């Protein structure tokens, strides 16, 4: 069959007119070239925008690193408080249980020290040994009356990780008695607590009505012991016993003893605030404040991931992911898989660790460990392009009552540390409350500390990268909010400039 040739109408329309003159042809081609140029430019711009959007849509990833008790989880809580306050509030009930565990645990550590004092009274001390004061009959009676609190601790811990034993980095029975409250970050501990306390809604909306019997009993027992706990903590003899206990055990090379010492000293530092607020936190209607939650100690095991949507200035809100890790030595191998693809590391170096040893290894000074850890992180090839944000933490600690923390102030001989506080610094610390004094530390000492970490960052970084330092006190929510605000703005700017939008 024959007919008209099958010509595409669009091709037909685009064909040059049949009677086109050479000048018309010339100007048509010129117009076509210009149109093509414009079209290519538009394509290029669209591609660039697509790539930029792809990059901008990628969440900003931050990894919190540092040794145990350096303040990583406290920094994360600040992120939550600032960026998802509703979720933070919804967890009040869960945190109340953690605060109660903190109180019970610190009381138990004091009772342990009193028990040591009683045992020591039956033996003859060495010529240089600090000697325990004799316990009064009132103190002995107090100790007996507070023993049932151990059941409260066991009950709360038992509910913390249902179906499994509460985790601990320590193993023997004795050590178990001084073990820290810790749960694996993948364990649904908050759900477990919620079930235990059955109060997630009521903690937000009003009084609890449906609390399980065992947890109610635990709270009532805590409330009933409140006066005795206050009396114990305020007894000057107890302070003396704790001071002698610390000095004695510091000089002993017995592993368990040293472990207990550092447990007492390191942990009570974090728990003192609750010992000073026993009446308030054991009240039957107690609801934790934001401040309480920031100070409540719950050791992290494993790595946990937290998602936020943050808005910097008039920018489009952006996804952020913050990773919190367990800082104990045995948990550090789990960090490495997270090194890849991080935008920034926030490293927390605690300033309050000159005279402390690691809870998990009493032969290691905390400051030395922190410096070695910083070196390892700075020189890691996986992190060579990652920005470093250093929080020199505890700089301004105004949140502890004066005097009561004085027992932890003695700076004793530190052998083999990479950075040694000067005589002036040591005198300064030993004269005043350790925690309270940090806000008044000689500025040249702080500058030295900053210089030390900065030098390592410069010396061990394989490539040029962002490096920012802040003096922080992450239990101070206002100050931390300002710092996290500037970290956010800085990372947003950095991300934008990487995606060439600015
Ligand atoms: N006063 C004061 N206490 C702090 C500060 N930072 C942390 N703490 C306390 O120190 C304790 C330990 O803090 P965390 O944030 O749990 O420490 P971490 O680094 O997460 O420790 P791990 O989970 O064991 O790795 C808590 O009781 C905190 O309240 C600070 O800046 N000032
Ligand atoms: Mg933690």
UniProtKB/TrEMBL annotation:
Mg(2+) binds at residue 300. Transmembrane segments: none annotated. SUPFAM superfamilies: P-loop containing nucleoside triphosphate hydrolases (SSF52540), Transducin (alpha subunit), insertion domain (SSF47895). One of its GO terms (molecular function) is G protein-coupled receptor binding. Keywords: GTP-binding, Magnesium, Metal-binding, Nucleotide-binding, Transducer. One of its GO terms (biological process) is adenylate cyclase-modulating G protein-coupled receptor signaling pathway. Residues 1-26, 159-184 are annotated as: Disordered. This is Guanine nucleotide-binding protein alpha-4 subunit. It comes from Mycena indigotica.
